[in-house]
Specification:
It is built from 10 helices and no strands. It has 212 residues and is mostly helical. The chain is elongated.
């Protein structure tokens, strides 16, 4: 029997946790409502009370994943841990570590974010992208990205997602390899674009040289 002592918020979180666990890092929509209800030890009717449809459950998972990822990135960039490197490069590295940690901790939620192409999930993903770009600019000491930085961000964030997806599907290479690849590509891309963009030359000066 379900634990009736759970608050509505805790019950909702428990149902989401159950759905994510059953998805096992894969596609949340591949898990049936019946299976989620059975694993959570509740009736399907109770599950539908909290999530009126499978789509509503997916949207809740996407929102939670986005909120958790943004919280981790914000802490890494704006409130770094005591003793951590406060330099722009240190904040950039900390943000990347936070991102990789979250991908590893919640692959199902991250995949749901990655797959969000329409409707409410896409809106949530777009808001996360905008906030992520803002934090990256803050880490680099930039108020508003110019064309060079926008190009760099678009390409690097796309690589970050593709690399993390490959890593989850083929984990043998390990997290450190993904981290080093992404830092190296960011540094080489920054160095390649800087001769064409004054703002990026300023970024390199603040970083003390392109990371690599």
């Amino acid at each position: 029997m379900p634990d009736r002592r759970l608050s509505p918020a805790a019950r909702r979180a428990h149902l989401l946790d159950t759905a994510v666990r059953l998805a096992a890092g894969g596609d949340l929509l591949a898990v049936s409502v019946a299976d989620i209800a059975a694993a959570a030890d509740v009736s399907e009717g109770l599950l539908y009370h909290y999530f009126p449809s499978k789509q509503a459950l997916l949207e809740a998972a996407v929102q939670r994943a986005a909120d958790q990822l943004l919280a981790d990135l914000t802490t890494a960039v704006l409130a770094p841990a005591a003793g951590s490197d406060p330099s722009p490069l240190g904040r950039l590295s900390a943000a990347l570590d936070a991102y990789l940690d979250r991908v590893q901790a919640d692959p199902t939620g991250w995949r749901a974010l990655l797959a969000a192409t329409s409707g409410e999930p896409a809106r949530i993903a777009a808001e996360l992208d905008a906030a992520t770009v803002g934090l990256l600019c803050h880490a680099l000491g930039v108020d508003k990205p110019g064309p060079g930085l926008r190009l760099l961000q678009a390409g690097w964030l796309a690589l970050e997602r593709a690399a993390c997806l490959s890593w989850l599907d083929n984990p043998a290479l390990g997290r450190d390899a993904v981290r080093e690849l992404l830092l190296a590509v960011f540094g080489s891309s920054l160095a390649a674009l800087a001769p064409h963009d004054e703002q990026l030359r300023g970024v390199i000066d603040r970083l003390g040289g392109a990371p690599g």
